[in-house]
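Why do we bother with holo predictions? Because pocket geometry can differ from the apo form. Keep that in mind while you read this record for aspartic acid.
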Amino acid sequence: MTQTNVIKEKSSILLIYTGGTIGMKEDPVLQALTPFDFSQILEEVPELAKFACKIDSYTFDPLIDSSDVEPSLWKALADLIEERYDDYDGFVILHGTDTMAYSASALSFMIEGLTKPVIFTGSQLPIGTPRTDGKENLISSVEIAAAKDADGHALVPEVCICFDNLLMRGNRTSKINSDNFRAFRSENLAPLAEAGISIRYNRQLIRIPEDWSARPVFHKELDTRVSILKIHPGITPQVVRDILCGQETRAVIIETYGAGNAPTKEWFLSIIREAAESGKVILNVTQCIAGSVNMDIYATGKCLKCCGVTSGYDSTTESALAKLFHILGTNEDAAAVKALLETDLRGEISK
Ligand code: ASP
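The structure, written out:
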């Protein structure tokens, strides 16, 4: 971690509210939690006025619980960021926590060559409740989104999740706790920044664009014909066949044991082989919350590799799904899809 000279003056931030717990407050009349008007954000979080930056807000209509998130929301977010890209120095997206890791992963693949921060945040307790974690999450996100170095470049030109004092690369995170304030983890990559008395940036890990003056490329074509198969003792041939050989499916993520291991029974391998031979892409990610797939260690992993399964390395399932949607959206050929899966596109895998 390094202490960096951070310039906060003259930054402008677009605060985008999509829904979720963070934007709720108690309505005394209805005696229920209802979304508050984000154009009044300074009344709710007066601390934001202390930053020397301009904050505009944009509220999605309708606001949604993030369990209802669909790729259409990701496209709408990409459209909005593309449209307003030149007007702001950074973007903060308020989003429900349940699917935040999927959305942050998706946006990371949909925007190539990012030169400005896109920070997702939310909270476990509504912003209008006394012990809320929402204010701290929002304030840290805005400070990080506004932070520039001495050359005027964004300190973190990446899609990230900022939660409970940690800034994590979006496509490395998973939601790991449903009631604790530390709701997210990035087990396979250290945080990009940590907020303590000051915000300490881990600059060796932060990805920077090849050309700061180039506009990013927005990829909005997504193909969602992907399934997920979680291996478990007792799994039946019927279940494996239904998921792997579905007509509509172009790719299947297999969540395997440990370093990428799965049953070696002949029925299992022959279904994998059949699916791979019919042109389906099969991607191996581990069920473990940390660590990587390595199909060269055990005979079980080697069998999968021989059947045509591709390694997902240390990818999270959320990131693997978003990456497949993105790659399948623009590639017809299974060999090209596999080659891209094995390539580190946005810092999502370590090889
Ligand atoms: N169910 C809510 C959502 O994901 C939970 C939250 O906001 O944290 O939208």
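The chain has a mean pLDDT of 93.
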